[in-house]
Design brief:
147 residues; two-stranded antiparallel sheet; 3 domains; two-stranded antiparallel ribbon; 7 helices; alpha+beta; binds zinc ion
């Protein structure tokens, strides 16, 4: 340890601390899934809970003179919707919204000489202005100067 300290030009105590922390890190490394499964939370338990919550009920009570005199259970639509939404998200049932936007960006990237004598990748004010006035023909993606 003193060799390491001498080599690095730092105090031996510091080396000891660093090594101790590194050792702790190695020992403390438990997969997050195991931490949760040890606590009884597993994909199966989450699925069971979400299934239960999709039928969640909301109990409404009526009280009179400090005592509940009546109660009624109605569907808790907020909880049911959130459970359904979370389940759909986990199952990947939502349409991929980003894909179209990314595809459009690719189509809109300039790959042509916009101003004579300027390179294809030029982003000067003149080329930017030319790019903004260009129209893209749907289908073949060809470029044409704007009107
Ligand atoms: Zn330019």
């Amino acid at each position: 340890m003193s060799d390491i300290a001498k080599e690095l030009g730092i105090a031996e105590g510091t080396v000891r601390t660093i090594l101790k922390e590194a050792e702790f890190e190695t020992r403390a490394k438990t997969p997050i899934e195991k931490v949760f499964s040890d606590a009884g939370i597993t994909p199966a338990s989450i699925a069971a809970k979400l299934s239960e919550l999709q039928n969640a009920k909301e109990v409404k009570r009526v009280s009179w003179e400090g005592k509940f005199t009546d109660e009624r259970a109605d569907p808790d639509n907020t909880v049911q919707f959130r459970a359904t939404e979370a389940t759909a998200k986990i199952l990947g049932l939502f349409p991929k919204e980003d894909t179209a936007a990314v595809a459009q960006l690719f189509v809109r990237l300039p790959d042509a000489v916009l101003t004579k004598g300027h390179p294809q990748t030029c982003t000067c004010a003149e080329c930017c202005s030319a790019w903004e006035s260009i129209t893209v023909t749907p289908g073949d993606g060809s470029l044409a100067p704007g009107k």
